[in-house]
Amino acid sequence: MRGGLWQLGQSITRRLAQGDKKAVARRYFASDAELKKTVVYDFHVANGGKMVPFAGWSMPIQYKDSIMDSTLNCRENGSLFDVSHMCGLSLKGKDSVPFLEKLVIADVAGLAPGTGSLTVFTNEKGGAIDDSVITKVKDDHIYLVVNAGCRDKDLAHIEEHMKAFKAKGGDVSWHIHDERSLLALQGPLAAPVLQHLTKADLSKMYFGGFQVLDINGVQCFLTRTGYTGEDGFEISIPSESAVDLAKAILEKSEGKIRLTGLGARDSLRLEAGLCLYGNDLEQHITPIEAGLTWAIGKRRRAEGGFLGADVILKQLEEGPKIRRVGFFSSGPPPRSHSEIQDEGGNNIGEVTSGGFSPCLKKNIAIGYVKSGLHKAGTKVKIIIRGKSNEGVVTKMPFVPTKYYKPS
Questions:
Q1: 332 preceded by cis ω (within 30°)?
Q2: Do the annotations mark residue 234 as ligand-binding?
Q3: CATH of segment(s) 40-85+179-271
Q4: Where in the sequence of the chain do the CATH 3.30.1360.120 domains occur?
Q5: Contact status, residue 373 vs residue 343, Cβ threshold 8 Å
Q6: N or C end of the chain: smaller count of CB under 10 Å?
Q7: 321-396 belongs to which CATH class?
Q8: Residue-level pLDDT at 27
């Protein structure tokens, strides 16, 4: 998926429009029997979901509407995503916080119970193993969600360090929530529609908040977060109740909230300037280079204590050699690996994600450039299929975020 889910979705749309369904099946539906399926799979298919392989799963890239229409509808009304391919897990025990702080950059101890944050798992060189949303449920219970494509390496990494930690007397254990599914409800109608399905007062729950509560008559883990830049929620629910909840959400929205696939999810997160692991974050990219300095707690900056802290804290002091930035550009939409040059034709970096913004009606991209050339307004050239196109460094997010925070 490194070329961009939006691009893949457009390719499928063109093929289907041309009636070349056999070619689509050959190219995208190969080895279907080997792919894992979420419990919502049949519901996707019944609702016109175009299923493609993604991180070992068969997932909907889009539905009957276009990726552009889906993106706009999320911003105007709302979207419901099945993200059950992602891996939720809990760490429990009185030492779960100090254990996790050895592996991530966040100030986990400083989180109030029922709140969370984006963080990064780092390696010994300060590079990103994965990004994750972590929540302190209680002082002895941490809930986190990791990316589907990183599941195996993340779990192996956590398990290796947990064994060493427990061997020294640390009290920590884990549970992988394979018995649960995960739905993401995003957009302006997310809160009012979800409020119909729970007695809890969602107006008192802010961005990053977490609660265990009944939704549609079933106990769920509810996190006010998402991957679109919009207000919204991620709902962890026992798998046997996931389809019923999806149906209830769509029904309560009176058709305004739509099932939405990975294609629009990619364009939404790109417009919000959010990283996609495997494109904008890699094992050789540090949080400082990725523009995630804000995710390193003040205490962690002073104390370190996480993997690769020496490299990261040195970059904090001296500045990184490369930086993640946004771009507007002319010509064809930039794609992953497009070369970035300065006005003199010298290589200064590479695009990591790019596409056409449905909301802004212009090309947008994320990439890395040499420090000193990262300031907004810096003119660049972006090379696409051997041709040079005008570009300019711009601030992110491209589309203003609408997270629900205290006024």
A1: no
A2: yes
A3: 3.30.1360.120
A4: 40-85+179-271
A5: no
A6: C
A7: mainly beta
A8: 42
